[in-house]
Amino acid sequence: MSESVLLVDDEMDFLEAMSERMTARGMEVTTASSATEAIEIIEKLSFDAIILDFQMPGMDGMEALKAIKAKRPESQIILLTGYATVEKGVEAMKVGATDFIEKPADLEALSEKIKKAKAERMLIAEKQQAGKVLEMIKKYGI
Amino acid sequence: MKKPSEIESIGLAFFGRVSASISHEIKNTLAIINENAGLLEDLTHLAEKGLPLSADRLQRLSNTIKRQVARADGIVQKMNRFSHTTDRTVQPVNLYETTVFVTEVCDRLISIRNVSVNVTPPATPVIVSSGLFYLEHLIWACMDFMMHAQRSGNAITLTFEKRSPGAQIKLSGSGSLETVSAGIFPSQTEKMLQESLQADIHVDAGNAEILILLPEAIH
Q: Which of A30, A65, B175, B198 is the 20 to 30 A CA-CA neighbour of B80?
């Protein structure tokens, strides 16, 4: 099954090219040109991975990350950053990012990260499901 | 290692912040060029498998790449000009042109704030003899504070006037700065810049105005 991806970047030329390349590789791609637009989209749709530009006009990257995690805590967010340092990465992970990659990104490397994000998300969903089943068993007994 | 003076340290910090912002802009253009080059590669592979290539498509991709190369060149020119502001300690400075340049160089930092910056040209050039780099820093520091104090979607306006003697730069916003400015602005950074430039900073918190008074020439 193909990965569903939300691509968030304020640069339209980047969004169009990357979106087309990802679609050609079998991914289902939705695009947003701002963090605000991305937040509106995730209210209605869920994705295997959200690729988020870390520095966009209007909303600070960290704020955007936190806002998305608040709406969809299970979101797997991969940050696109202009300067990837270990410190920045750790800071972003603490707030809930799954991974980060420096621009310009190698699409094959990014695709691998998206596959991992999807696998992680499925694992979380399975655990949540298992948790619900256990709850039901405890509640109603066997 | 000799310790830099305080004014040198804050100057380095400003230079670093602007350089980081500009390098991020360059990264963005490289990312676009990279993706479009990748797209060309993908289309080539498809053509090898027999899928036809659209000349119009190729032209559009080429135009995008050329546009981004021109954009990157503009950004590097900005960076170059900014780097050269440290060439001379004191020089004649056109306040309007310098402020416009500061908004261009700090464009990305401004866009993150989501506050519009309007720079109003004076009727006649307003020129002082000053330390260009530190003046750029002071203008940015005042703009940054003013934007921080404004609500998202608001605007700040900068105007320029000759005084006898010297000149002034006025930054005007909406609402008031009272809840933000007390004890925060001018901070140690602005005070050091003020001293270095022999300038005065007046804050009218109630009317959301900052006035930078500059001497005609610094000694």
A: B198
Q: What's the number of domains chain A is made of?
A: 1
Partners of residue A105 in chain B, C-beta under 8 Å: 31, 34
Most A CBs within 10 Å, among B29, B32, B117, to test the A interface: B32
Say yes or no for a CB contact (<8 Å) between A104 and B35. Answer: yes
pLDDT in tens, B116-160: 999 999 999 999 999 999 999 999 999 999 998 888 889 999 999
- Whether residues B73 and B156 share a domain: the answer is no
Return mean pLDDT, chain B: 93
- Total domains in the fold of chain B: 2
Across the interface, which of A14, A18, A83 has its CB nearest the CB of B24? A83
The answer to ipTM > 0.90 is: no
Q: b or e along A74-108 (b: 16 or more beta carbons within 10 Å of the residue's beta carbon)?
A: ebbbbbbbbebeeebbeebeeeebbbbbbbbbebe
How far is the alpha carbon of B32 from chain A, nearest alpha carbon, in Å?
Answer: 5
d(CA A43, CA B175) in angstroms, rounded, equals 33
Q: Are residues B112 and B193 in the same domain?
A: yes
